[in-house]
Each structure stands twice: as C-alpha cells, then as structure tokens.
Write a structure and sequence with these properties.
This protein is α/β, with parallel strands linked by helices. The chain has helices spanning about 5-20, 35-45, 70-80, 105-130, 160-170, 180-200, 225-240, 255, and strands spanning about 20-25, 50-55, 90-95, 135-140, 170-175, 205-210, 245-250. It is about 40% helix and about 15% strand. About 35% of the residues are buried.
C-alpha cells in the first residue's frame, strides 16, 4: 500500500494517463486507516475505484498469517470507520491460488483443496455482501479444467467446472491469462470468456509486466508501446463476448517501469 505522497501522486498521474478505472490495494493491518482513506479518496477523485485485495494459499489449510478471519475483520472495521462512501473500498477481491500447494497434482489432495477453496470463496462472498460490497476473484485461465466439489456445487448435474461455479458465487472474476502475445492470450482466454457469457458475469483478462522468468508470459523487458498496441488487439478480439469487462495489468510497479 502506497503511503508516500510523491509515490501516490506519480501513480495517480500514470493511472490517469492509461485510463485505469479500478485498482486493488493489499489489505495490511500495519498501515493506518488514514493512509487507506487518503488513497481511496484521491483515486475516487479521478474516477478510479479501489478494491481490497486479500489472499493466501495457506488459507486452504486453515493456516497463514494474517488469517482469513484477520483480513475480514480488518475490512469490517475499516469500512465501519470510513466517514462516507468516498473513502470506502468498493469490493473485496480474493486471490487464493491453492494450486501452489504441495500435492495439488494428486487427485485426492486436489479434491480436498478445491472443496476448501470453494468454502473460502463462499465465506468471502457472504461477508462482502453483508457489508454491501461487491466481491471478485482471481482465477487461473485453466479453471475450466478444475472440477468443484459436488457437495459445494449448486449444480446437481456434476458438469460444473470451477470457473462456472465461482462466477455463480462472485460478482466478477479476473482470469490470469498471462501471455505476451495477443493471439496466445485470446486463445487461453476463450474458456473464461465463454464461462462469463454463460453465467452473465463480467470477466477481466490479465497481463503480466513483472519478471516471472518466462518471456512468453510477461511483458517484462518489452516497451510500453508494445504493451499498449497488444492491449488494443486483445480488446478488439475479446469484445465480441458480452462478458468481457476489460484488461487487468499486473502490477503498479512493473507497468510504469516498461521503457
């Protein structure tokens, strides 16, 4: 979370020049409420909504610090302390990523992790709506290959996939379609956009700008002009889908650093 006034001003100038409409600020109980209020208010003055970003793969195992309950408790106190809507978070945005856990590739373990993941998604969604906040989730582009727990699924046909199940619970989703070429990005995004169309929920596609060690996945080392041109191509290719909401760029450090 940015607290330095110069850093915030630089970010807002950059975001304004790129037409950014939404940003996510990581929940951090060590940052004073006043810092979040100031940031959210300044973003709002530029027409930029701010979401509260939370997530930890360890939550799947009921571990992790801060815990899910800690994060939700902080959000509740923050929203309650905000003097008006101009200083409140618009939504809760979750990024849990259970696929990084040991044993994910083992069917039995994966089934356990997915059931816990669904439980956490439902918990966060119910919490958010209790505070009149929107709720969103990050998903891998291959979420259509993950089978949700039948005990947690609202679809009794056993044909639901995790992308469709999640979109049925949250208000929108961002799919991590990290590719550094429009054709490849649109290819991996096709199932996500189809799930959005089927459920009537907004879908965001995502690009990476930080160094992830694979040029095929990130625009790191490329130019800002190359990214801008490719984003136009992606938008043109995706807008045929009613669910396409826009493109999320990760992140606030990597994007401005592009030459």
């Amino acid at each position: 979370m940015m607290q330095d006034s110069t850093q915030v001003a630089d970010f807002l100038a950059f975001a304004g020049s790129k037409g950014v409409k939404k940003v996510y600020a990581g929940v951090n109980a060590d940052v004073p409420n006043e810092a979040f209020r100031g940031f959210i208010e300044q973003c709002g003055a530029q027409g930029i909504a701010v979401g509260a970003l939370i997530g930890n793969s360890q939550w799947i195992l009921d571990r992790g610090t801060p815990s899910l309950d800690d994060n939700l408790g902080w959000i509740e106190q923050y929203q309650g302390s905000a003097p008006d809507n101009s200083t409140k978070f618009e939504e809760v945005h979750m990024d849990i990523e259970p696929w990084v856990l040991e044993g994910w590739d083992t069917p039995a373990k994966q089934a356990q992790y997915v059931a816990s993941w669904q439980e956490k998604i439902s918990t966060i969604a119910n919490f958010s709506r209790g505070l009149d906040m929107a709720v969103a989730a990050d998903l891998p582009f291959w979420a259509n290959t993950i089978i949700p727990s039948s005990s947690s699924s609202s679809d009794s046909s056993d044909s639901t996939t995790m992308d469709v199940w999640t979109l049925g619970v949250v208000d929108s989703a961002t799919f991590m379609t990290y590719r550094s070429a429009p054709a490849q990005l649109l290819d991996v995004a096709a199932p996500a956009l189809g799930a959005g169309d089927a459920t009537g929920k907004p879908v965001w596609l995502a690009v990476e700008t930080t160094d992830v060690g694979d040029a095929a996945l990130s625009y790191f080392g490329r130019t800002a002009g190359a990214l801008a041109a490719d984003l136009v191509t992606v938008q043109e290719g995706a807008r045929a889908h009613a669910s396409f909401a826009g493109i999320a760029v990760h992140d606030s450090v990597g994007w401005p650093a592009l030459a």
